[in-house]
């Protein structure tokens, strides 16, 4: 099976995003577009990034867009002000439910967690369910340097952006799904 570099999929009617830098150019394998079972398609692995520091999470197929808090919701979009950059800064910590995974702590002392299929910020209630919903395991991405984040609570479901919203969706073996679920964990925005 051969792979070739290709630009991330365009959304209908929207211009293609700026090309990623050479070190971040995506390599999308060709695959059958049929969905796979809910079981994770990726090998189980440890964390590729050290925890403890402040980070931002950037989309790979929309390079100017970052995760940021908008109230309790986590959105994807550009950072146009100092307040937006603060809202896009998280502390990467060992996963609350699995130390080989990640949790994302907010400045307000809460954590990002998957609730009702969407990524939101919330306070840790100490329950095992919250800890699982706030834990995401890094998996290799089809994009060079990218990371996909699989839910510790729902095997085979990954965070992906759907427009400006961040959803927890079952894995689909499509170029668009792989592009929308690829993120870079980068230093906090300046």
Automatic annotation (TrEMBL):
Region described as Disordered: 1-54
Domain of life: Bacteria
One Pfam family linked to the record: AbfB
Biased amino acid composition, Low complexity: 15-26
Domain Alpha-L-arabinofuranosidase B arabinose-binding: 57-184
Name under which the protein is recorded: AbfB domain-containing protein
Originating organism: Streptomyces albidocamelliae
Lineage, uppermost ranks: Bacteria, Bacillati, Actinomycetota, Actinomycetes, Kitasatosporales
């Amino acid at each position: 099976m051969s792979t070739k570099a290709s630009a991330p999929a365009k959304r209908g009617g929207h211009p293609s995003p700026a090309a990623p830098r050479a070190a971040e150019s995506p390599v999308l394998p060709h695959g059958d577009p049929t969905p796979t079972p809910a079981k994770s398609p990726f090998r189980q692995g440890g964390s590729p990034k050290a925890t403890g520091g402040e980070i931002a999470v950037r989309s790979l197929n929309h390079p100017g867009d970052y995760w940021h808090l908008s109230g309790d919701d986590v959105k994807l979009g550009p950072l146009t002000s100092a307040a937006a950059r603060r809202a896009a800064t998280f502390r990467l910590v060992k996963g609350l439910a699995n130390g080989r995974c990640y949790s994302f702590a907010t400045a307000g002392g809460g954590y990002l967690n998957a609730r009702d299929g969407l990524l939101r910020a919330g306070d840790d209630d100490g329950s095992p369910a919250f800890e699982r919903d706030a834990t995401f395991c890094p998996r290799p991405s089809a994009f060079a340097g990218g990371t996909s984040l699989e839910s510790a609570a729902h095997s085979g479901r990954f965070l992906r952006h759907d427009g400006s919203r961040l959803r927890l969706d079952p894995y689909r073996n499509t170029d668009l799904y792989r592009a929308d679920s690829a993120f870079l964990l980068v230093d906090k925005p300046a």
